[in-house]
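To whoever is on call:

I kicked off a structure prediction for a single chain this morning and the downstream step that reads the tokens threw a length-mismatch warning. I double-checked the sequence; it's 401 residues and nothing unusual in it as far as I can see. Pasting both halves so you can look.
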Amino acid sequence: MKLRKSMLRQTQRGVFITALSFSVLSCGQNQKNGMMTNGAPEYAVMTVDTSAVDLNTSYSAKLRGKQDIEIRPNVSGFITKLCVDEGATVKKGQTLFIIDPVQYEEAVKVAEAAVNVAKANVATAELTAENKRELARKNIISQYDLQTAENSLASQKANLAQAEAELINAKKNLSYTRVTSPSNGVVGKIPFRVGSLVGPTTATALTTVADVSEIVAYFSLNEKEVMALTKNNDGKTAKTLEEMPEVELQLPDGSIYPYKGKIITVSGIFDDATGSASVRAAFPNKENILRSGGSGVVLIPEKNNEALVIPQNTVTEIQDKRYVFVVTDSSTVVQTEIQILPINDGQQFVVTSGLKPGDRIVAEGVGTTVRNNMKITPITQEQAKAKLQGAIQQQAGAAAK
């Protein structure tokens, strides 16, 4: 029971402090330096000025491995064994699938037998040819008989060469029954299982091996953005890429990938349908955090020495439009629409239009008590914090009693 009463008192105290912060800042009968104000509520006001900021322009990106290789069989047959599973990390030359090798082993044996027969025929033809040469030297047989023997030897040698070629092809087909990885990488989806009939004409690949030692992020820039990148280098994209700073990658969970990347290519042709050019940025993937087929947001840094930066809590949003309350010389607030950069760090906005250096805007209470054309008594943010802190301490002292 005592614990519940204590929690109730703490909750009531928190509610009171929240309410007190608004009442201190916006009460219609405030005191200032010991004197009563003219009845206009006091609100903290800040002056907008330019400052140097480091900005990040964000682009949605699709991630791909350094190379994604489709694995396809070179011979037809039934899969007898799956040597890896989806998502496995494999090395170059590692066996992925085994296709029934029986018929190809038999083909090798037949080819070996054919080679042995051809070798025997060559040996017989050589004996015959040598005998004919000796007889020809003694003028016992005609030149025709000798040439016939020589032609028979050449024919048998050709048959041997053909048989040896067929043996090489049979052995190669037998080796193809063990489907191996052409590179280091990660195994993708495996649509076929043991017992599936596959072959060179199968439309679907056995799987994909993605080399993820380096991940490439694909994103797009519109024509205006590409021109902005290259205009200072006489349109030379290669020079622009060399001078561009490293970029960052924001992961789907909102975190920033620990390794920075580099933009490596910008397409020289704009897509007719989208009006954009494809861009590639490469990121190292030492710890295999990134996977091919994933997504992210590429952040390109940009320094702006004359940016108008305002806190997000000074802005209200109405029907996808953003407004601030500008304080006029007569201490009247005017609701003013602003435009901002599509960059959001959760704390500040960079204003592109609607404000100019030297403008004063209401810094607190814009989403609750401030109204358009309202008369206020401007105070500094430091004064507002001091008044709020004093009221909180006064309430804490009263509660202690």
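Update from on-call: the warning came from a stale cache, not from the record. Cleared it. Sanity check on the structure: The chain is about 30% helix and 35% strand.
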